[in-house]
Amino acid sequence: TAMRTEVILATLLLAAASAPALAESVRSGGYTLHYSAMPSTMITPEVARAAGITRSSSRALLNVAVRRDSDDGLGEPVAATVTANVRNPVGQLQSLRMREVREADAIYYLGEARFTDHDTLDFEIEAVIQGEPRPIRVRFNQQFFTR
């Protein structure tokens, strides 16, 4: 199953890289928070099933990872308490249930948000790393289409 989970992670990262908004990151206090959002239909049915993701033309997938900065530039995966909220254009707030996924040398967090066609969602992410005085926060928005 280790090989299978590595395939899931690689597929998620590849889908994030090909999404309309590429994976982004923000650095804070020796850590880098990586984040991306994409329509869940960009994930294959097999990967969605294995990762517990609902594929739907009206669902977005949020993917978050935190890495401790390192000299080699790759960073080391770090566990965090990740929370995320999403606001749609009419002001409705969704608190996302972020699920931690651990595979081989990776730790990342997945959450799903509902949207309607042409919605621009406003994402707010907070990652609290144990022992660190301040959380890492990021806010971004992205438009989604159901087709």
Q: Find the count of extended strands (DSSP E, 2+ residues).
A: 10
Structural class estimated from helices and strands: alpha+beta
SSE arrangement, N to C: HEEHEEEEEEEE
Strand content: over 45%
The number of distinct helices, counting runs of at least 4 residues, comes to 2
Radius of gyration: 15 Å
Poorly predicted spans: 16-21
Q: Helix proportion of residues, in percent?
A: 10-25%
Determine the N-to-C terminus distance. Answer: 33 Å
Note down, in words, how this protein is organized:
This protein has 147 residues and is an alpha+beta fold. It has 2 helices and 10 strands. A hairpin with a 7-residue loop joins strand 9 (120-128) and strand 10 (136-143). The termini are far apart.
Short précis:
By secondary structure, the chain is an alpha+beta fold. The chain has 2 helices and 10 strands, in the order αββαββββββββ.
